[in-house]
């Protein structure tokens, strides 16, 4: 559930960016027209990815709570430690991948939204005439 909430927040950020930003590239125009139909599929895919990533944890595949202080004489304790370190590395990689992708999506959409709003503000200031506030003048013309 933790990863799915991260994914939901990231998709909400992407949705808001696409709806509010005013880019003129054909890809953004295409996305703006189809984002309402794509959102349920993106949320469903995120839920499935979160569920699939949680299955190994639910089955306790990544148990790293073994006691290495008293190894059995018939087993090779150094081989067991190497295997556990590899599993721990895989666990850390899986956790970082689960957090990293939504974080990247959220940061990229936020940067694009800030860039779009900055361009919009500059455009309004350049088109303003007289000493009035540019936003007030734009709202009066609208």
TrEMBL record:
Which family is annotated? Belongs to the G-protein coupled receptor T2R family.
Q: Which UniProt keywords apply?
A: G-protein coupled receptor, Membrane, Receptor, Sensory transduction, Taste, Transducer, Transmembrane, Transmembrane helix
**Where is this protein primarily located?**
membrane
Record membrane topology: Multi-pass membrane protein
> Is Phosphoprotein included in the keywords of this UniProt record?
no
Which PANTHER family does this UniProt record tie to the protein?
TASTE RECEPTOR TYPE 2, TASTE RECEPTOR TYPE 2 MEMBER 40
Listed name of the protein: Taste receptor type 2 member 40
Q: Which GO terms describe its molecular function?
A: bitter taste receptor activity; G protein-coupled receptor activity
Where does it localize? Membrane
Tell me what organism the protein belongs to.
Leucopsar rothschildi
Locate the transmembrane regions by residue number.
Answer: 6-31, 38-59, 87-114
User: What Gene Ontology cellular-component terms does the record carry?
Assistant: membrane
